[in-house]
Amino acid sequence: MLMLKCPYCGVVADETELSPGGQAHLTRFGPGASDEDFESYLFMRENPKGVHFERWRHSNGCGKWFHAARCTATLEVFGTYSAQTVEPPEEVRAAITAKRPGWSWGEFS
Amino acid sequence: MSTRLASGGRLVNRDRAVEFTFNGKRMRGFEGDTLASALLAGDQMLVGRSFKYHRPRGIVASGAEEPNGLVNLGEGSMFEPNARVTTTELFDGLTAGSQNHWPSLEFDVGAVNAKLSRFLPAGFYYKMFIHPRPLWKHVYEPVIRQSAGLGKAPKDRDGERYEHFYAHVDLLIIGGGIAGLVAAKAAIGSGLRVLLVEQTAAWGGRAPVDGAVIDGMPADQWIAQTVAELEAAENIELRTRLMGAGVYDHGYVLGYERVGDHQPGEGLPKHRLWRIRAGHVLTATGAIERPLSFAGNDLPGVMLASAVRDYAVNFGVSVGDRTVVVTNNDDAYRTALVMKEAGLDVPAIIDARPEGAGALGAEVEAAGIRVLKGKGIAKVKGGKRVTGVATCAMAGEGTAQDEIACDVVAMSGGWSPVVHLWSHCGGKLVWDAEHAFFRPDPDRAPTGADGAGFVSVTGSANGAMTVADVLTDAAAQGAAVVKAVGGKAAKVAVTADAEDAAPMAPVWMMPQGAKYELRAKMWLDYQNDVKVSDVQLAAQEGFESVEHTKRYTTLGMATDQGKLSNINGLAILSDALNQPIPQTGTTTFRPPYTPISMGAIAGEARDEIFQPLRKTPMHDWHHVNGAHWEPMGHWRRPYCFQRAGESVEEAVHREVKNAREKLGLLDASTLGKLIVKGPDAGKFLDMLYTNMMSTLKVGRCRYGLMCSENGFLMDDGVVARLCEDTFLCHTTSGGADHIHAHMEEWLQTEWWDWNVWVVNATEQFAQVAVVGPKARKVLQKLGGMDVSRDALPFMGWVEGEIAGIPARAFRISFSGELSYEIAVPASYGLAFWEKLMEAGAEFGVMPYGTEALHIMRAEKGFIMIGDETDGTVIPQDLGLNWAISKKKEDFIGKRGQERVHMTDPDRWKLVGLKTVDGSVLPDGAYAVGEGSNANGQRTVIGRVTSTYHSPTLERGIAMGLVKNGPDRMGERLEFPKVDGSSVHAEICDPVFFDREGEKQDV
Amino acid sequence: MSKAVTALNRAAYDGYVRIEDAGLCGMISLRGDLSDAKVKKACKDASGQAMPKARGIVGSLDGGIGWMSPDEALVLVPYAEAPAAAARMEMTLKTAHALVVEVSDARAVFTLRGEKLREVLAKVTPADIAALPVGELHRTRVAQVAGAIWLSDETTAHLICFRSVAEYMFELLSRSAMPGAEVS
Fold first, then answer.
1. Per residue in B450-475, is it b (16+ CB within 10 Å) or e — as a string?
2. Which CATH class is domain B676-725+735-758?
């Protein structure tokens, strides 16, 4: 049962107040995209043991979507941040590097 | 025999007698007794039969680890199976009955299994009952089920109530023995929120029983003083009867509070489940004594040495007149001393260690107790009760030497720290060779959200085995955990004298080289009837992993989860595998620590609040007027309004006819109503819907389809443009929350630079569909709004007042009739509905339910999300190409619909289906074609998605998805039925009624 | 004109904490930039209150503002005045990008009274109610539905949920407040 801090309202929410939204930082591919790009957008997901970036919604709360960086193996949370970004912010990356030197995930490291 | 001593019993109040019954026998105990102590006081040692061999079983322990004393408690709605006698507090009127015996506890037919035990080794059932297969279901299983099993499932509804309680604390200390109390002292005045919980009704744990002296005071006095001190601290909450049941991620802990168990009928909740979030958890859960494995160690009267002492000191109960103590450590000597002091006979202490004990050895000698060093028990004598023991040398294979008459054998194989809570969330263990037990490895604690360990352990749970060590460890751990959560620890100095104890000697089998006949009588797991020989057999047969051995032999399963048996079992396994114990490891510790009630897990969620029941403003009216309910998500919608003497089907057909011919009312309040506003609202809705919404004119409505990125249809509904930058989107009843979330998701996470706001106004309005040829008339009669064809044409909407109630009227039709959907503020919903019923009386008004709605839409060939769609259907499959914009470059689902599989001409497409004989096609029936597939099943070429009897057409009508369906009009399809027969139907246009739409546009 | 009624029609339960239907309350949902001067003005004109800080709630049920999210405010006004107040807010916000929707009828409002109301609430919500400051609006899960909770003083709390689950909420809170179920 995770606890995540919603970066929008500042509430540390119980997992039962949140809705999971799958992998973060996907790029949308629409009409005109190749089959490969569309497949990667719709179906291909990271499945790491370790550092992971996810989307969550504070659904029983302020209703905002946000991002969380956490470790899938230990459930350590490195940080939560705005949903309105295409990459993890520098401070979150630094926090991960401090705990998991040499990490990488998708195009990020 | 066991009996109440003339004096003593620190936990019982001898001034208050308590009456109870066991197997119908009236018995008496005292306030403060457990059921176990009261049974023993009444010489009821025999409490059950074992799981497999139905051997007589007596009470072994005095706490949560008790494997045998499981009883049925209460009757009827208060019935509870598998209650542990050792943790059940006695109350007036308690009724208990033993389990797993037939026909009676004293005489059990199944005990013949014990005679056959040679032939019932580990894995016997697996091996024996596999062949022939047909016998399994009808012969083997029923017989085995009859003879096996613990307790009975309750038959009646649970008459108790339960609740949850969420607590947030900085520090949770689990265990109210001296370790927990000392650790809590460190938090006094720290300002931290601290919760200290104890599973029993009394503080202090074992220390008073063991005669501890703390800070120069008898333990009882020190405990009372410390508890008072802690209670005075404002930041610390103390609770008894609250067990730490499980430790989970991020500091989540479940606590199980037995609120009303010991005082039933007082109107208290029976149990309260504490859902605790703790910054840090300190477990001070103590240790559990281990049995010793010697032949006949399961006979009633063979008990843990600590339990024998507990009954004497805590409850003033002697479990027997002559107690033989058998041990591999000093601690059990205390039992000998306690019994002697109580004036009872202790013929001998049999100590497996050649050197015997330390200081306690001298004490027992002074008390005149004989100690047999380097000896073991060859065999326990007796049937339903111990009558004596035969001694032997510890070394060797167990040739009997002397016989000692006794009625109690108090055994101690050493102690095992209670590491369950530490382990639940991933804490690792180390093997402590000195004490022969696993204890928590402080370097490998379970970690929390910040990556640091969030569970610590103290006291004997942490491997401290003397009072002095426990106090030192608890003071240190208390200070450490207070600091860990950012507090300033109070100075705590509590002392006790060091003990001069001799080291314990690991003894896993007694005697060391016991022969097979003895090993086959050495019980490891009393509850599951697992013996030393069974574990050895498992190892021999290749079940080398401790987890496999557990499943194969059932060692450590069921209600006690091996609290007594685990370490002994895996030591035997290690020995059989010839590997060190740490290499064998332990089985996984899973929550809960002891079983908790299902009621506590459900909490308040039962009966009418099992789930939230969503009600429209007219719900109660529907109820009074014969609504036959249909669940729809958490809503209940009237399926139909049944009249006296009418079947459900008749009611539905009447409602359809009435709406087609006169006037029907449908409560459509559950439809989702989302308001979408902003300069980019049109652009946003163009992305959301497959059709073009930005071109919709103010004052007009348009039916729209929504797809997922996969291209699959997920929702539909009518969109109304309220003003230039504002739209009202209707969703399906089940889709309101989901589509609102869908909109927010795209706005927040993909197009956050678009200027659009969304508000879910679903429940602001009660919505009524006024349907039928007389719909306009009734609204005109109510007055206040021009609802003429010119003022409010088909697919238009207007705002104003009807009958003095603010209203928005939409000229939309899901029935094919002249129809208005009218939204009024929910608080006026019932009033509006009643006005419609009243004014409609002269026009023959009737309310109708969802089934009539379904039939009317099917007659019109309108699709229903969830019937014609199932998450794999695209709009093109349903002939809805007209609702898919070709002009838009993009919308959600467009790219998905371009995939090869989606454009395959062989996709099943929507058609109407008319049975040749006019009957109703079975729902979900498949159409079969020529040939068969690789599995020899007939080729399927389509399926029924909606099927009804149409009262309008007086025949069965259906819709279905059929391969190349629209190209096969007039073709007949075969639909096999469950009974083996088939029904034939002709492919036709899905619009069965009023193809031109004349009725709705008048 | 017909009489407007709440879902519970002023029901009340006297447990160890009193649970009551607070009756018809005027509520207006505002989506917009809460730091925008026009948004602040519109809310103030309607409620007589200044925009609260994050998670704050100011004023009373008859005139107040609750902070619902960074771009959502709940404006509280007397029920009868809500349509007019919403219309005025819309006028004020005509040139701003904001959405004003009256939601008075979409909700049920409860008042809890008693010394131990935090305890009753803590039975049904995972939020840290014991630490909830007076004047803070906490949106959370209440058993199986969404709710917003705030304390106007130590012995008075309010809870807002959707109208359709009003009966569920009333039964839930009543059971939690049943005599004999006191935790402390």
1. ebebbbbbbbbbbbbbbbbbbbbbbb
2. alpha beta
**Domain range C12-176, its CATH number among 3.30.1360.120, 3.40.50.300, 3.40.50.150, 3.20.20.70:** 3.30.1360.120
Quick: pLDDT tens for B862-892.
999 999 999 999 999 999 999 999 999 999 9
The total of structural domains in chain A comes to 1
Domain ranges of chain B: 1-156, 162-287+417-484, 291-413, 516-584, 619-670+764-857, 676-725+735-758, 861-988
Residue B297: phi and psi, rounded to 5, are: -75, 5
Q: Judging by beta carbons within 10 Å of its beta carbon (0-12, 13-18, 19+), is residue B93 exposed, middle or buried? A: exposed
B207 three-class SS: coil
* Residues B957, B978: Cα–Cα separation, whole Å: 19
Q: How many CB pairs under 8 A join A and B?
A: 68
Give one word for B251, left, alpha or beta, with left for phi > 0 and alpha for psi -120 to 50.
left
Q: What top-level class would CATH report for the domain B516-584?
A: mainly alpha
Q: Give pLDDT tens digits for B246-298.
A: 999 999 999 999 999 999 888 899 999 999 999 999 999 999 999 999 999 99
CATH number for the domain formed by residue range(s) B861-988: 2.40.30.110
Cβ contact, residue pair C7, B615, below 8 Å:
yes
What pTM was computed for the model? 0.95
Q: Please say whether the beta carbons of B609 and C143 come within 8 A.
A: yes
> Residue A71 domain-assigned?
yes
In sequence order, the β-bridge partners of residue B976 are B982
Cα gap C22→C113, rounded to integer Å: 11
C140/A61 touch (CB, cutoff 8 Å), yes or no: yes
B76-80 contacts at long range (C-beta below 8 A, 24 or more positions apart):
B76/B156, B76/B159, B77/B156, B77/B157, B77/B158, B77/B159, B77/B160, B78/B159, B78/B160, B78/B264, B79/B154, B79/B155, B79/B156, B80/B154, B80/B597
- Per-residue pLDDT band for B766 (boundaries 50, 70, 90) equals very high
What distance in Å separates residue C9's CA from the closest CA in chain B?
10
Residue whose entry in the numeric block shows the structure tokens 């003497």: B645
The bridge status of strand B345-351 relative to strand B322-327 is parallel
ipTM metric: 0.97
User: Which one of A27, A75, A86, A96 makes the best mutation probe of the B interface by having the most chain B beta carbons within 10 Å?
Assistant: A75
Is A18 inside any structural domain?
A: yes
What CATH homologous superfamily does B291-413 map to? FAD/NAD(P)-binding domain (3.50.50.60)
DSSP designation for B893:
T
